[in-house]
Amino acid sequence: MNTAQLDRRHFAWLSIVAAIATIALKTIAWWVTGSVSLLSDALESLVNLAGASFALWMILITRVPADDEHPFGHGKAEYFSSGFEGVLIFGAAVAIIVTAVQRLFAPQPLEAIGLGLGLSALSTVINYGVAVALRNAGVRFHSIALEADSKHLMTDVWTSVGVVTGVVMVTMSGWLWIDPVVAIAVGLHIIVEGYRLVSASVHGMMDGALVEDRLENIKATLDAFAERGVGYKNLKTRRAGTVSFIQVDITVPRQWTVGQGHDVLDEIESRLASIVPNANIVTHLEPKD
């Protein structure tokens, strides 16, 4: 079993467990206080759970080997996870805003605020730790599903900070309208994050090129062969989930033998594979001029 795939599954399970724990904590916090802003925080954690579960499903699909119908594998499945989580965020935002507007016109006093804030703070610490772990894993394994989950969790962290601040302000001032206003702000904030996730998913499905630093490394590697009379043209790259694709035409002197050309292609592909792990590399040999 591929080690990177195994690790990605573990991080997805970590996100699911964290989502379940924070849902429980935030729901209790809302139940004991009656705060609609804490309710909005709990609803966002429900989205976290759905998104993390879908991300795990998509990661499992990426493990399916290439077949006749999908000769380049199933790496793009992770982009569905990012888009799905973005859509879920939109739905949660609408529910939060509708509930908050209703409470704005019918404010209610808050209760057991100390306990509620303590539970919310604990859930925030959990989310922050998991978000950092997912972010690092997403970068390490080039997993958009883990990266999207990390961004959503970090959004949840800042949401919780805002909610706690709002509840504290209600306690200190006695202005009950602050609670639903904070909840509305939370809803608008996560709409922006949902848009970003959907945009990233669409960009990935459109076969975007590799990031600039990877392209520069690839070009530098190919340029290093120039002193041996080897050139290149028509360099194309794209990324599909955890898999990168590199396609390039290699030009060599006409007097070279087939064996010489084959050897240099092997060397080029080996060097490219060392700087772009898990890459599908296609080279085409052509005579110069």
- Number of helix segments? 8
Q: What is the H/E string?
A: HHHHHHHEEHE
Proportion of β residues? 5-15%
CATH architecture of the largest domain: Up-down Bundle
State the fourth-level CATH superfamily of the largest domain: Cation efflux protein transmembrane domain
Largest β-sheet summary: 3 strands, mixed
Structural Rg? 25 Å
Tally of distinct domains: 2
Q: Portion of residues in helices? A: over 70%
Order of adjacent strands in the largest pleated sheet: 1-2-3
Count all strands and give the number: 3
Keywords:
single chain; 3-stranded mixed β-sheet; 71% helix; elongated; mainly alpha; 289 residues; disordered N terminus; 3 strands; 2 domains; Alpha-lytic protease prodomain-like; Alpha-Beta Plaits
